[in-house]
Amino acid sequence: MGVAEAVLLTIITASTPLLIAALGELVTERSGVLNLGVEGMMIMGAVAGFAFAQISGSAYVGALGGMLAGAVFSLLFAFLTLSLVANQVATGLALTILGLGLSGLLGEAYIGQPGIKMEPIVIPLLSQIPFIGKLLFAQDLIFYISIALLIAVNWFLFRTRAGLTLRSVGDNHSSAHALGINVIAVRYMAVIFGGACSGLAGAHLSLVQVPQWVENMSAGRGWIALALVVFASWRPMRVLFGAYLFGAVGIAQLHIQALGFSVPSQFLSSLPYIATIIVLVIISGNRRLTLINTPASLGKGFVPDR
Amino acid sequence: MFIELERRPAHSTLYSALSPFIALILTLVAGAILFAVMGINPAKGLYSFFIEPLTEVWSLHELAIKAAPLILIATGLSICFLSSNWNIGAEGQFILGAIFGSILPVLFHEQVGIWVLPAMMIMGMIGGALWALIPALLKTRFGANEILTSLMLVYVAELFLDWLVRGAWRNPEGFNFPETRSFSPGQILPEVLDSGRAHYGAVLAIVAVLIAWFMMAKTIRGFEVKVIGQAPKAGQFAGFDAKRVTIVAFMISGALAGLAGIAEVSGAIQQLRPTISPGYGFTAIIVAFLGRLNPVGVFAAGLVLALSFLGSEAAQISLGVSDKLGRVFQGMLLFFVLACDTLIHYRIRITGWAGRARTGET
Amino acid sequence: MKKTLALVAGMAAGLVAAAGAPALADSHAKTKACFVYVGPIGDFGWSYQHHQGLLAVEAEFGDKVETAYLESVPEGADAERAVERFARSGCNIVFTTSFGYMDATNKVAAKFPDVMFEHATGYKRESDNVSTYSSKFFEGRYIQGQIAAKLSKTGVAGYIASFPIPEVVRGINSFILGAQSINPDFKLKVVWVNTWFDPGKESDAAKTLIDQGVDIVTQHTDSTAPMQVAAERGIMAFGQASDMYRFGEKTQLTAIIDDWAPYYIERVNAVMDGTWESQDVWHGMDHGSVAMAPYTNMPDDVKALAEETEAKIKSGEFTPFTGPITKQDGSQWLADGETADIGTLLGMNFYVQGVDDTLPN
Fold it and tell me: Of A66, A175, B25, B337, which has fewest CB within 10 angstroms of its CB?
C-alpha cells in the first residue's frame, strides 16, 4: 500500500463518523428541529455499540445496538421538544450532558477490555482497481453504509414526495399543518432518524476507529458534525465534502508534525476549528445560497391548533 | 397514548411558581429510583447528595466558590439568550478573560498597588467581551451561525492558553512545568470572611445579578433586548437595531464570563495553568436555563448546580458511587425543569387512541 | 398521586433519619488512606495505575486500613476542595496524584498539620507534612530504545507525545539514547497530540507515523489505541503505564508499568507505625516503581540484551543519561562518563541529537 493510499485511508476512517452523524442531523434540521444533542447520542451509540458487540460477539450486532441506542435516546429529546415544546437548544444540551454521564455509568464494566473490531469487507474485483480499489472497496460495512446513506438522503430529500413533505414541514410548519400534514409525526421520525445516525457514528468510534470503550471517547466529534451541517448549508453532498475536508485537516496537522516542521502544535491542533469558522463565514456570506436551503422554521416549536 | 397541548390564554402564575419545585421533586424521585437500582439506600444517597454539603461551614464556602463563576457567566448568558443570540462559547470567553486579566500579575509581577485588582478585573471583562465580539460580528456581518462559531472559539481559546503557559508565560522558576508564576498577594482576590476561603468573586456575582436584574426589569435597554429576542419584526418597527442588540448582548455576556475567569484565577487558583475551568462555561448554559433566563432565578440555579457538584463528591466518598452519577443528576434535573415549564404556557391533556380518533374527525 | 406523595414523605423521613445518625466509625483503630485522581480510574493508564496502588494497599493491610478516592478531579479550584474534604473526613494520609494539585496540596497541608500529604511529580514541600514522589519512567524508555533499534528495519521509530513537559522530554531523550547505543543513525519522529487521553486522536497519530515509515510505535499518552493500530498494521509497539498485552498479543514488545504499589504500601505503613517523615523521592527500577512488562514478540538475543540493560539499571551500575551526550543543536551536554544532575533532569527542556522534531517552545 502506497503512502498516499494509507493517508487517504486514515482520513476516510476519521471522517466516516462525522459524515454519518452530520447526515442524520441534516435530516433532523431539514424538518425544522435543531438537536444539539448529537454528542450525547453519539457517545450513547459508542457505549451501546461496544456493549452489544461484547455480549453478542458480533461487531454487526454492536453497530445495530449503537443505532438503536441513539434512536431511543433521541426519543427523549423528541418527547420534550415536540410533545412538550420545550426549548430545543436547552434540551439538546441537556441530552449531551445526560449522555456523557449515563454512558460513563453504563460503560464502567467495559473499561480496559479489548473490543471486537469490525472487519473490512473486501469486494472481489472492484478492490483490485489500482489506488481507489483499496480505498473504496475494501472497507468496513459502516463506511459502505455512510456512502449509501449519503445517496439515499439526497434522493429522499429532493426526489421523493416524502422528502418534499419533510422539507415543507421544516420551511413552514403552519402551512404544512394547514395542508393536513402531521407536523409532529414527521418531526418525530426525523429526530429518531438523526438519533440512529448519531448512534451508528458512535458505534463506528468504538468498533472501527478504536475497538474499545473509554469515557468521553467522542471527544467533541458530535459538535463538529453539527458544524458540518451548517457548513454544508443543509445540502447532503456538501456534507460529504465538509466531513472529508475536516478529517483531512486533522490528519494533515499530524503529518506536518511527523515531518519535523517546527510549528507550535497548539496552533496546528486549532487549525480544524479555525478552518470551520472561516468556511462557515464564507458560506454564510453568500446569502442567496444559505437562504434557499436554510429550513425557515429551524429551532421553532410547533403546537397544532385544533 | 397521546399528549395534547392547549395554549393557556395567559401564562399560569401558579405553575410559574410551582414548576421548579415539581421539577426538583421529580428529580429526587428519579434519583431515588436510580439509587435503588444501584443498590444504594435512596435516603442515604439523596442525603449525601443534597444535604450533607450544607451541614458544614467550610462546605458552604466551597459552595460559594463553585457557584460564583456559574452565576456570573449564566447571568450574562441569560441576557444573551433572551435576545435570541445563542452564545455557547462562554467557556472560551472565560479563558480569554482569565488571560487578559493575568497580563498584569504575570508580566508586571511587582505591581501591587490597590489599583491592581480592579484593573485586573476590568482587563478580564475586556478580554471576555472581545472574544465574544468575534462571533457577534461574524453573525451581524456575514450571518455565520453563532452557536457554531462561538463553540469553535472555545477550542481555539483553550489551545491559546495552553500555548501561553507552556511558552512565553511559563514560570521561570518552575522547572519548565506548564504554569505561570503565582500571583503576588496584592493580586489575589481576598477572602470575604475568616471562616473559609470563599473570595470576593462571590460578591461580584451577587452584584452582577442585581445589576442585570435592574437592567432587564427597569431599563429601556433591557426592554429592547427582550423585544428583539421575542418579536424581532416588532422590535425593528419600534426602531430597535437588531444588529446592535446582538453585539451588545454578546459583549455583556462575554464580559461577565471574562470577569468570572479572572476572578476564578485570581481568587481560587492564583496562577494560570493549562486548564483553569472544569467546564464552567458549558455548565452555566444549564444554569441560565434552569434559572429561566432571569437573574434571580439564575442565582438560585447556580447554587443548586454547585450543590450537585459538591454532593456528587460527597457521595463518591461516603457511598462509593461513581462521579458520573452527578452528571446524570444534572441532566435529569434540566430535563424535568424543561418539561415542567411547559405547564406554564400550556394545559396538557393525555388522550388515548379514542380521544385521538375523535379529534381526527373534527 | 397519593402514592407519589407517600413515597416523597417516606424519603423525607429517611433523610431526617440519615441526618440524625452520622457515621460513627471507630476511626482510631484504622488508618485511612485517601487518593485524588485526575482522570477516571477507567483510563487504563495513569489514574488506573494509581488506583491499582490503592487496591494493593487494601490487600496488604486488610481491615487495618480504610481507603477512599475521588476520580476525575479537575486541576484548579476543585482540587483544593477535594484535598480539603479528605483532610476533614478523617484521612491520615492523602495522596494527590497529579502535578496540577501541587499548590492545592500545599495550601491544605498548611491548615491540617496532623494529616500527611503525598504529592506525585511535584517539587513544592512548604510544610513538613508534605512529601513529593515520582518515578524514573525514563529508565524504561532507554531499554525500549535499544529494542527498537535492534528490531526496526526502517531505522525510524515513532513517538506519540502528550505535552512538552520535562517528564515527556526525558522519555523521548532516553529512548533515542538507548536506540543510538545500538544504531548511531537511528531516528525518531515525534507527534504531539496535546492530550493525555483521546483514543481517536492517538490512533490517528499512530497511523500518521506508520504512514511516514516508522515501523515501531511508542507512546507517552494513556490510551491503548496506538497499540491497537499497530496491531492492525502489523508492526510493533510498546505499551505505556500498564501492561497492554491484551490489546496487542502479537504486537507489544514490552511496556513500562507504573507500579505505585510498593511506595504506597511503604508510606501507609510509615503512617501506621509513626515513622512518616517529609521526603522527596524519585524512585526507579531499583525500588520496583518502574517495572517492565514481559519481553515478548522478539528474538532471544534482543530479549537477553534488554534483560541485561534492565539488570544494570536496577543495580545502579548504569543510568541512561551518561555522557558523552550531545544536544540537538550540536553543543555538548555531558562529557564522557559524566552523569546528568537532578536539576537539569527535572527541568529538561531540550532534545538530544537524533530526534527528528523541534521541541515546542
Answer: A175
pLDDT tens column, A119-168: 888 888 888 888 788 888 888 999 999 999 999 999 999 999 999 999 99
B335, A76: Cβ pair inside 8 Å? yes
Cis peptide before C324 (omega within 30 of 0): yes
Q: What angle do CA C256, C260, C264 make, to 5 degrees?
A: 170
Q: In terms of Cα–Cα distance, which of A204, A228, A201, A206 is closest to A217?
A: A206
Domain that holds residue B135: 59-304
Contact B324 A101 (CB under 8 A): yes
ipTM of the complex: 0.84
Please count the structural domains in chain C: 2
At A147, list the grid cell.
456512502
Please give the model's pTM, rounded to 2 decimal places: 0.85
Architecture in CATH for domain A3-293? Orthogonal Bundle (1.10)
Out of B25, B43, B176, name the one closest to residue C165 (CB).
B176
* Tens digit of each residue's pLDDT (9 = 90 or more) over B73-127: 999 999 999 998 989 899 999 999 999 999 999 988 887 788 999 999 999 999 9
Contacts (Cβ under 8 Å, ≥6 apart) of B137? B247
Task: Write the residue in B324, B325, B331 that is nearest to A94 by C-beta.
Answer: B331
In a domain, B310, yes or no: no
C contact test, residue of A265, A266, A270, A273 with most C CBs within 10 A:
A265
User: C51 is in which domain, residue-wise?
Assistant: 30-135
How far does the CA of residue A235 sit from the closest CA of chain C (Å)? 27
List the alpha helices (DSSP H) in chain C.
2-20, 46-61, 77-88, 102-111, 138-151, 166-182, 199-211, 225-233, 261-272, 300-315, 342-346
Pairwise CA distance, residues A248 & A228, whole Å:
14
Co-location of B169 and B117 in the same domain: yes
Closest residue to C77, CB basis, from B178, B264, B316: B264
Taking the CA of residue A17 and the nearest CA in chain C, the distance in Å comes to 11
A266 touches chain C (CB under 8 A): yes
Sign of CA dihedral C135, C136, C137, C143: negative
Q: What is the CA radius of gyration of chain B?
A: 22
Contact of A108 with chain C, judged by CB distance below 8 Å, is answered with yes
Contact A105, B35 (CB under 8 A): no
Separation of alpha carbons C257 and B81, rounded Å: 50
Q: Hey, of C81, C121, C196, which one would you mutate to test binding to chain B, going by the most B CBs within 10 A of its CB?
A: C81
Per-residue burial over C20-55, b if 16 or more Cβ lie within 10 Å, else e, is eeeeeeeeeebbbbbbbbbbbbbbbbbbbbbbbbbe
The answer to whether residues C224 and C47 touch, using CB atoms and an 8 Å cutoff, is no
